[in-house]
From TrEMBL:
Superkingdom of origin organism: Bacteria
The protein's name in its UniProt record: Aldehyde dehydrogenase
Keyword Cytoplasm: no
Active-site residues annotated for this sequence: E246
Family matches, as SUPFAM superfamilies: ALDH-like (SSF53720)
């Protein structure tokens, strides 16, 4: 079993107690990581604070050079990182439509390079005979990053790289369920960065809570559930930490009656089941017009039955296991509730026997608003399909949810679909697509799906404070 260490102030740090990391494809541990104490958090924060003056004072071009070196390190170690991602998350190396560990590590490299190139220019508000007024962006200090288990390495990169680019130092805590790829990345990074610039602590929820409340951390960036995000927000009030919270999503997609069911079904399946449905911005509620409902659900069920589910290390696997046993039980609970309330399970819907946390891709027909599987975020390989007839009514139903991360409209008339989609209450609208994010376009939610945005210039600015400088000329 492979053993990992934390990295604090550039040095490997162990702990008295270890945490086993389970491979969800087998249900058995494959690695051990340290169980940090609150004292370890204190040491990591102290190291980051000590490193902040030097790092923030480094010229932007040098920080960019070092961040590009981190991208090179990720690329040079891509096979090892892919294997760690697959073993800890269960996702295939390749996966459905190429959405697997290879995409995760490749995406981490791409995001690193794009983020390195971002600029924070001084904005001139006034420059006349009387005065010059400038707006400067300055780093906040120490950023605390808390990451989830579904895209552990890529989301770590989403948090860490803009923080470093803006001149902050970082303490990161990965999910205790999927810490290994992030630990390895931080180890590689500390061969490039000055000591204390990037530190990692591993542990259970108490360590994340200690970071959220820590007076030495100036900002928390968190990706995860809405209930946990609320707790972080409460804890962060102690020193008025800045926050970026990317929280739960229960994304709706609306299929208009002018599409070809056979052509659109594979695309709908792909965006509903990539990463086994374990993505905040997956398609999670599918509203289909009555005129083509039966044909769409029939095609989706056929695709689901033909999907290859198995160990992510096997080359032909399209969908791996659910990442953990608790999530597997929750997913099945939602399916059983829908079955009991009259929904038809067209594919899947059965808890398999044997090793691992596998669940077959499940298409639920005759789902209705009010069923748990529709109203709650499934975060697993399940897609409820809901029938509609009236366009205004379906928009209201899609919006009648506490979440507002993403949404999509599917149509052969792009302009019409865009007008319809703009009425959805969500942070990102996709037309004939769902869940596709990119490093130069802002991404974030409304309502209970979070605060702030990530990616591109807008995301980078979230890691800074504004300083207005007014220089009088007379």
């Amino acid at each position: 079993m492979r053993e990992f260490n934390m990295i604090i102030d550039g040095k490997a740090v162990s702990a008295v107690r270890g945490l086993e990391v389970v491979n969800p494809a087998s249900g058995r541990p494959f690695a051990v990581v340290p169980a940090a104490s609150e004292a370890d958090v204190d040491r990591a924060v102290a190291a980051a604070r000590a490193a902040f003056p030097g790092w923030s004072g480094t010229v932007a071009a040098e920080r960019q050079r070092l961040i590009l070196a981190l991208a090179d390190a990720l690329e040079a170690n891509m096979p090892e990182l892919m294997e760690l991602v697959t073993r800890e998350t269960g996702k295939p190396l390749g996966g459905l439509n190429g959405v697997g560990a290879g995409m995760e590590v490749g995406g981490a490299i791409a995001w690193t390079r794009v983020t390195a190139a971002l600029e924070l220019p001084v904005e001139v508000i006034q420059d006349n005979d009387e005065a010059r007024v400038e707006v400067h962006r300055k780093p906040l200090g120490v950023v605390g990053s808390i990451t989830p288990w579904n895209w552990p390495l890529m989301i770590a990169i989403w948090h860490v790289m803009p923080a470093l680019r803006a001149g902050n130092t970082v303490v990161i805590k990965p999910s205790e369920l999927t810490p290994t790829a992030t630990l390895r990345f931080v180890e590689l990074a500390n061969a490039i960065l000055p000591p204390g610039v990037l530190n990692i602590v591993t542990g259970e929820r108490d360590i994340g809570a200690a970071m959220a409340a820590h007076p030495g951390i100036d900002k928390i960036v968190f990706t995860g559930s809405t209930p946990t995000g609320r707790k972080i927000m409460q804890s962060a009030a102690g020193n008025l930490k800045r926050l970026t919270l990317e929280l739960g999503g229960n994304d709706a997609g609306i299929v208009l009656p002018d599409v070809d069911p056979k052509a659109v079904a594979p695309r709908l399946f792909a965006v509903g089941f990539h990463n086994n449905g374990q993505t905040c911005a997956c398609l999670k509620r599918l509203y289909v017009h009555d005129s083509l409902y039966d044909e769409v659900v029939s095609e989706l069920a056929r695709i689901a039955r033909e999907a290859v589910v198995g160990d992510g290390m096997m080359s032909d696997t399209q969908l791996g296991p659910v990442q953990n046993k608790a999530q597997l039980r929750y997913v099945h609970e939602l399916v059983e509730d829908a079955r009991a309330r009259g929904a038809r399970i067209l594919s899947g819907g059965e808890m398999p026997t044997g090793d691992g946390y596998f669940y077959p891709p499940t298409i639920i027909a005759d789902a209705i608003d009010g069923m748990r599987v529709v109203d709650e975020e499934q975060f697993g390989p399940v897609l409820p399909v809901i029938r509609y007839t009236d366009l205004d009514d379906v928009i209201a139903r899609a919006n009648d949810n506490d979440n507002g991360l993403g949404g999509s409209v599917w149509s052969s008339d792009i302009d019409h679909a865009t007008r319809i989609g703009m009425r959805l209450e969500c942070g990102t609208l996709w037309v004939n697509e769902h869940g596709a994010v990119q490093p130069d376009a802002p991404f974030g939610g409304v309502k209970q799906s979070g605060i702030g945005v990530e990616f591109g210039r807008y995301g980078l600015e979230e890691y800074t404070s504004i300083q207005t400088v007014k220089v009088m000329k007379r």
